[in-house]
Structure formats: structure tokens, C-alpha cells
Amino acid sequence: MELKQSLSTHLEAEEPLRRYGAVEETAWKTEGLGRNQLDIISMAETTMMPEEIELEMAKIQRLREVLVRRESELRFMMDDIQLCKDIMDLKQELQNLVAIPEKEKTKLQKQREDELIQKIHKLVQKRDFLVDDAEVERLRLPGREESRAPT
């Protein structure tokens, strides 16, 4: 809007244009332009009507929403993978302790066995909460497909 006013003022008063980006260096050919064509002069590389700009902005907003949903989904997946990895590591350590006959286990090994069981239980609960949160997020955000829900 400021550009159109500045251009109109310049055409009427023949004063030099104010500095606004590259406007001062741009030679505007206004002799053969009708009123509608003057309305669409812009600083953009291509000339776009306001309706076209609004449509493109709406497309960009939808794309942004899709990307935010995907980012959220990927974060849930990363957390899930890390939790599963941690659970598997603890299970492997527990399996090594369980393989030792009960009579040969030290008190420290028995305590470690109990600790591992508790840690695994906490991680499984945490993963369950994560899966529940992912499902709530999937249902909350529009445009999600059933088949893409994290497991």
C-alpha cells in the first residue's frame, strides 16, 4: 500500500521516490499501465494479486501444520525407540543375572536383579504413557490417518 501511495505521489508531484528496498533503482513504466495494473505492482519477483497471495499463504499454513504433526510424530517415535532400546539393554543384563544359579548368586547380584526388574517396569510404564500420548495427539490433530499411528 505504501508503495502504491509513494508511486502515485511521485507521478503527481514528480518528486524522487523515497528509499524502500530497490524501489529507487527500479524504473517503473507507468505510461501504458491502466489503473488495475498499477494496483498489482509489488516488490516481489513476480506480480501476484492479493487473492493469489492469500491462497499461497493458506497452502503454506496447511503445509506448516502437516510438518508440525510430522515432527511431533517423529519425536514420539524417537522416544519410543530409545525406551525400547533401554528396555532391551536392561533385559539383557537381567537375563545374564537370571542365568546364574540361585545358589551361586551374591547378595549384590540379587539386589541388582531386583533393581533391573524395577527399572524395566518403570520404563515399560513410561512407554505405555508415551503410546497413550501419541494416540491422543493423533486423534487431536486433524488430517491424521489411522494406519500411521505409532505403536
From TrEMBL:
<feature type="domain" description="BMERB">
    <location>
        <begin position="3"/>
        <end position="150"/>
    </location>
</feature>
<protein>
    <submittedName>
        <fullName>BMERB domain containing 1</fullName>
    </submittedName>
</protein>
<dbReference type="Pfam" id="PF12130">
    <property type="entry name" value="bMERB_dom"/>
</dbReference>
<dbReference type="InterPro" id="IPR040127">
    <property type="entry name" value="BMERB"/>
</dbReference>
<dbReference type="InterPro" id="IPR022735">
    <property type="entry name" value="bMERB_dom"/>
</dbReference>
